[in-house]
C-alpha cells in the first residue's frame, strides 16, 4: 500500500466505501475503491434439471383439412 486507506460515503445510498492506493514497481500506481452491497446476489430461484433434454416443437408437413 502506498498510502493509508481513506473512508468515504456513497453520496446517494450513504453506504461506506474504502479507497486504497497501491504502488507496484512494474505496473505503477493503482487505486481500488471497495464498497459493501446490502442486496443479496441474484441467483436463479430454481436450478435446471440435471438431465434436461429440450425438444423442438414439431410442425405438421400436411396442410390442415378444408372446412
Question: SSE string, helix = H, strand = E?
Answer: EEE
CA gyration radius, whole angstroms:
28 Å
Helicity range: under 10%
Strand order of the largest sheet: 1-2-3
Strand content: 25-35%
- Beginning-to-end CA distance, first to last residue: 82 Å
* Helix vs. strand class: mainly beta
> Would you identify the regions where 5 or more consecutive residues have pLDDT less than 50?
none
Number of strands: 3
Principal-axes shape call: elongated
- How is the biggest beta sheet arranged? 3 strands, antiparallel
Mean pLDDT figure: 81
Count, helices:
0
Summarize the structure in words:
The protein is built from no helices and 3 strands. It is an all-beta fold and 67 residues long. Strands 1-2-3 form a 3-stranded antiparallel sheet, with no helix packed on it. Strand 2 and strand 3 form a beta hairpin.
Main attributes of the structure:
67 residues; mainly beta; 0% helix; elongated
Fold topology:
Blueprint: E1 6-9, E2 16-24, E3 28-35
Antiparallel strand pairs: 1-2, 2-3
Task: Summarize this structure briefly.
By secondary structure, the protein is mostly beta strands. The chain contains no helices and 3 strands.
Amino acid at each position: 500500500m502506498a498510502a493509508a486507506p481513506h473512508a468515504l460515503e456513497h453520496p446517494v445510498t450513504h453506504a461506506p466505501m474504502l479507497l486504497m492506493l497501491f504502488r507496484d514497481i512494474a505496473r505503477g500506481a493503482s487505486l481500488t475503491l471497495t464498497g459493501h452491497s446490502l442486496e443479496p446476489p441474484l441467483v436463479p430461484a430454481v436450478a435446471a434439471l440435471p438431465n434436461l433434454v429440450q425438444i423442438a416443437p414439431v410442425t405438421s408437413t400436411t396442410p390442415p383439412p378444408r372446412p
